[in-house]
Every structure is written in structure tokens, then in C-alpha cells.
Amino acid sequence: MPVAPLIPPPLSLYVHLPWCVRKCPYCDFNSHEARTALPFDAYVEALLADLEFDLPLVWGRTVHSVFFGGGTPSLFPAEAIDRFLQGASSRLRFAPDVEITLETNPGTAEHGRFEGYRAAGVNRLSFGIQSFDDGCLQRLGRIHDSREAEAAVKQAQDAGFDDINLDLMFALPQQTPAMAETDVERAIALAPAHVSHYQLTLEPNTVFAVRTPEGLPDEDTAWTMQEACQARLAAAGYAQYEISAYARPGRQCAHNLNYWRFGDYLGIGAGAHGKLTLGSEQSILRRWKHKHPARYLATAGTAGAIGGDERIAPEQRPFEFMLNALRLREGFTLALFRARTGLDDEAIAAPLERAIARGWLAREDGERIRPTELGLRFANDAIALFL
Ligand SMILES: C[S@@+](CC[C@H](N)C(=O)[O-])C[C@H]1O[C@@H](n2cnc3c(N)ncnc32)[C@H](O)[C@@H]1O
Ligand code: SF4
């Protein structure tokens, strides 16, 4: 494969908190029902030990975003988040404008918790709303209703959070296009900075995959829903910048943008994945940690916590890069492709021409490649060309 120098990209930190009140029947994230009191202190110690172990991989680099994902990070008390952030920022350099997001389940919004998160340094909240229809919420096995969801978002706003994302899902069992649009309207009424709008997928190894729920909209209906919701969001000032992500001007999620631009991330916590460019050896490392919380707790800070390590070989990089970049409306520049993959343009010349011929990608001023509307709709097919 023809080579170009690999240039270490911006660095993010992903922190996985693996517990939930109850497991949702559609969810294949690494999340475990909290059946007993959770070991918050021990888990924070484990996270810091894990971080310490991985530090030599990112020595001297600056962290531009932190994302507490789950699971349900909002099960953790603010003191635990504070202790982790203090420990992390004393070991790693945080950028002055670092974005720190915490995923929140509206069913866990205890009084005073949002103030505590804010004081700890969290400056962005991402709420798992899913729907504002109580029937839909029930069928999704959610632990909250729509009233609680709206109240939780308002509490967070009262605590001073203005950078808020609402996660919605569509193509839900027994959902009509009109219901999907109402969900989007109710989200907009809360004036969030960002909305994520995901089509429900039946993931293997979930309850929904085994017992398919009744009344699932078909693909054409799902597409109608997405188009109608996208138009409503656009009319309210939320521009789609990625297949499932919409933001007000300047409010894109820096953390996710770094993933989609094939940036680097350190992954700590049970089951967390990381991807790091090692400039000195001109390689890209993927590393993931053991998934099960008990095993992770027992081994964090040692090589025993590593579930696996692998290098992304040069021939895998075009596909890995496109898997992310072709989800973005902005697409990518050839300079970004070279810097992130360490490959020359030649490595993608043939599939690129095929994707352009099919009308999935367009080339602008010779340098920028952007997915077309058709390319965004058939992103998986466009990406597969680079396999
Ligand atoms: C880790 S969860 C976020 C926060 C929190 N755990 C919650 O559910 O409230 C991330 C988001 O992924 C989306 N999601 C999860 N499973 C999905 C599926 N099977 N299909 C589509 N979206 C899904 C949901 O919108 C969810 O809020
Ligand atoms: S609360 Fe979120 S992470 Fe937990 S099971 Fe439900 S969707 Fe998955």
C-alpha cells in the first residue's frame, strides 16, 4: 500500500459506566442491571488505575473531549464523577475548552444531582428520551414516562446546563409517522442544543431480536418518518450534520465529531474501546477492556484488564475511515484521509470513482469528498465499496 505520514489526530477520552436500573429490551450496549448497591468508589479507583496504565500511549497529548457513556452514567453520584475528573485532569492535559458530556437517563434524575455534575466540570448532558409517547416508552421497557423526561430536562436547564442533547428513537413498535413527528416537536419545545434521532434497530442478542415486537414500521415508513422529522428539525434550526445527529449552529458534539473524523480516543472502563495513533511507530492501535464489571474491577490497572489489542493494518484503514467519515454531511478532505490513515489517495482511487459514478459521493474542488443525499441514505452500500 502506498504510504503517507500518519499524523496523531485530536484525542478524546471515553469512559464507560456499565450499569442501568433495568435492561431495555432493544439495547445491546454493555450494560448490566444494578441488582445490588453499586461499588461507585471502587469503580472510580479502577477507572483511574486503568487510565494510569494506558497513559504511556498518549503521553504529552491534550484531551479535547470526555464522554461518560453507558450504561447509565447518571446513576453515579456527582462526587464520584468529580473524583474521577479531578484524577483524570491531574494525569492528562485537558484543553481549556474541553467538552465533557454525561449520558443521563431521565428516570435517574435525583434532586440536586445536576448541580453536582456541573460543579464537577460536566458541561454537556445527553438525555436518553427515546420518545415522549407513554405507550411507546412502555413498549420500550423504559423506566420513565414523558412527564418525568420533560421535568428532568428542565431541572438540568435550571441547574445551568445549556448544552443538552436529547436522544430520540423512531420506527418504534406501533408508531405512526405522525407520532414520530410529535416526538420531534416535543423535543424542539424543550430547546435543546442538539438532537440525536436514531432508527430503532433490532440488535442480535437482545430481547427484541428474539421476540420481535408487534407493529414495527417497515423500511419505507421508517424513511418517511426520517424525512419528515428531518424537515421539522431543519425548520426549527437544527441542521443534520451526521446521519442521526442534528445541531443548532456551533453545537455539534465535539466528541462524536472526533470519532467520525477518525480521530483518536482512549477508552477506559468495562468494555470500553480505544483507538490510538502511535506516531513513533507509525501504527494505529485498537484496544478494548474486559466487558464484565466484576472482571474489570478485579483487573483494572493491569494488563489483565485488556480484552484485546490489535493494529489496524494499512489495507483495513480505508474501510475503517469511511465507516466514520461517510456518515458526515461534510464528508472528508483527501488531506484528512492521508493524515489519519497514513495512505496515499491512490489507496481509495478506484472505489471512490465507483461511488461517484453511482451518485453516492461527489467531489468538490478536487479536495473534498461529500456524500450526496442518496449517499447518506445508502451509506452502508457506499462504505462497503471500500472493503
Ligand atoms: C447508551 S444509550 C444512552 C443513555 C441511557 N443509557 C438511556 O438509555 O437513557 C445511547 C442511545 O442509543 C440509542 N439506542 C440504544 N439502542 C438502540 C437501538 N437498538 N436502536 C437504535 N438506537 C438505540 C438510544 O437512543 C440511547 O439513548
Ligand atoms: S438505559 Fe440505556 S444503556 Fe441502559 S439498557 Fe436502556 S438503552 Fe441500554
Automatic annotation (TrEMBL):
Pfam family name, one: HemN_C
Enumerate the SUPFAM superfamilies for this protein.
Answer: Radical SAM enzymes (SSF102114)
Record has Disulfide bond as a keyword: no
**What SMART domains does the record tag this protein with?**
Elp3
What is one process in the GO biological process aspect for this record? porphyrin-containing compound biosynthetic process
**Xref: InterPro entries:** Coproporphyrinogen-III_oxidase (IPR034505), Elp3/MiaA/NifB-like_rSAM (IPR006638), HemN_C (IPR010723), HemW-like (IPR004559), rSAM (IPR007197), rSAM_sf (IPR058240)
Q: Where is the Radical SAM core domain?
A: 5-239
Q: Name one GO cellular component term.
A: cytoplasm
Q: Which UniProt keywords apply?
A: 4Fe-4S, Chaperone, Cytoplasm, Heme, Iron, Iron-sulfur, Metal-binding, S-adenosyl-L-methionine
State a single Gene Ontology molecular function.
4 iron, 4 sulfur cluster binding
Q: Where in the cell is it found?
A: Cytoplasm
Family named by the database record: Belongs to the anaerobic coproporphyrinogen-III oxidase family. HemW subfamily.
NCBIfam families, A to Z: hemN_rel (TIGR00539)
Q: What does this protein do?
A: Probably acts as a heme chaperone, transferring heme to an unknown acceptor. Binds one molecule of heme per monomer, possibly covalently. Binds 1 [4Fe-4S] cluster. The cluster is coordinated with 3 cysteines and an exchangeable S-adenosyl-L-methionine.
Name by which UniProt lists this protein: Heme chaperone HemW
